Sequence to fold (282 residues):
Amino acid sequence: MGIRNPKKETRDRLSCKTLDDRFRVEMTQGLNCSPFEAEAVLEVVKEVYFPFLDEAAPQPPPGKISLVAVGADEPAGKPVRDCQKQAICLTLHRGAEDDHLLMDSPAAFRQAKIPDLCQQALSQGALLTVEDLAFRVFFVSTRTISRDLAQLRKADAQDVIPLRSTLHDIGPVLTHRTQIVRLALEGKTTSQICKIMRHSPEAVANYLSTFTRVAQLQQKQMQPGQIAFLLRRGRSLVRRYLELLQVCERDKNMAYHLEELMRLGSAGVEKKSNQGGRRDGK
Fold:
């Protein structure tokens, strides 16, 4: 065995998190193209379309950054170059509410934003790494980010930050998502779910929207593999959601909330609770 070069390994992993690499993976894994064919198609797309895209490309709003990260459904141990990638947009600076953190110290700002950024990424179907935070977001060393994470763990050991390195298998991610959906099926409102799971309303709406689409496709007699392909989600997640649908068939309360969720959509969870309260008051 040769001598490991950690810096080169880091560069190689980061070089795999690009739109080009995402396109190659989509071509090889989604359309069964060979790596050579995927590269050839990519070059043609660049040649034909790229001259017209730069000027038309929308700019991210102030305070937001966009990057490519590994999909949340990808298992640990799988080489980054072979993983599905997800383009995500993260809110790094929320304006005046974050200014006091910047005035305090750069470390205070990073430590306040790291959990929020990781949750944002997860809600968009991706998991950040220490390297992403260091070289794509805060432009500091990985050692600095590791110190920040150590401080966060010291402050609250029970609060697990959803990084790819801390979720050693896909189980915790799936459990996290299904927990949110189960709470909605039990009749919890969006605000209650956000408080219990420490998530933003946007993240909760994202999970419930995916679950609703799984339920709709299942009604059309589609197989788990077909649903996963159409929704661009992992088969493991789809299977968990299908298991929840089976539970709903045996539980009248969950079945009622499932019907309301599918009728109103994920954004109507709060409305559903309010309507239920009015019915109870009659």
Notes: The first strand starts at residue 64 and ends at 71. Strands lie at 64-71, 85-91, 126-127. Residues 122 and 185 are 21 Å apart (CA to CA).
